[in-house]
Description:
This protein is 19% helix and 33% strand. The protein has helices at 5-32, 145-148, and strands spanning 45-54, 60-66, 81-86, 90-98, 102-111, 130-132, 150-152, 157-162. The model is unreliable at 9-30 (pLDDT under 50). It folds into 2 domains: 1-32; 45-162, Immunoglobulin-like (Sandwich), CATH 2.60.40.
Amino acid sequence: MSLPRRSRTAAVTLAVLAAAAALAGPTARAQSGPPPGCTGPASSTWINVNVEGLRSSDGLLAITLYPDDPRRFLVRHGSLYVGRVPAHAGSMRACIFVPEPGNYVLALYHDENGNRKFDRSGLGLPAEGYGFSNNPPTIAGLPSFRAVRLSIPKANLSTRIQMKYP
Length: 166
């Protein structure tokens, strides 16, 4: 026994809609919250950090979040938070929570020896890889605060940071 044409069309349409909803369901839920492993004190705002140029999988990648205050930039105890995730050679993705939408600075370093410090040479120059939001030039020294300010107006945005090594 076959269904009338109108009923078959309706049944096919419902089946297609049900399949589309089943496929879209997990994707929609995944986008409504932070990715697994997002570091920092949980909040409703986070940023995905695409890191490029890590030379090895040794140690940790430290992601330091600074407030929108030039007096606290790169100052001891000036950061809001330092998140650490396992390093992965080449390119990797990490995520860090921010307290709320606004302007921040991200400073990264590749803690290859895992001592949880940014190591420097005897001359005070970096001994480990580093990077900053907006990828400013650092040939002549540290970047200006203005060059590294990053606007994070809402959750689930992405930024790219290229690591530099001495």
